[in-house]
Amino acid sequence: MKKALLLSLLLVLLISCSEPIRQDRLVMGTNCSVSVFSKSDEKEIQSCFEILSEIEKRISAKLVDSEIGEINSAAGKNSVKVSRETFDLVKRSLELKELTEGAFNPLLGKITSLWNIGSGDEIVPDKQTIDNLVHHLEIGAIALDEDNLTVYLSDENTALDLGAIGKGYASDVVSSYLKEKGIKKALINLGGNVYAIGKKGKDKNWKIGIRNPEGNGLFTTVEIDEGAVITSGSYERYFISDGVRYHHIMDPSTGYPANNDLVSVTIIGRDACLADALSTAVFVLGEEKGIKLLEKLGIRGILLTEDGRTVNV
Ligand code: FAD
Ligand code: MG
Question: Is the pTM higher than 0.90?
Answer without folding.
Answer: yes
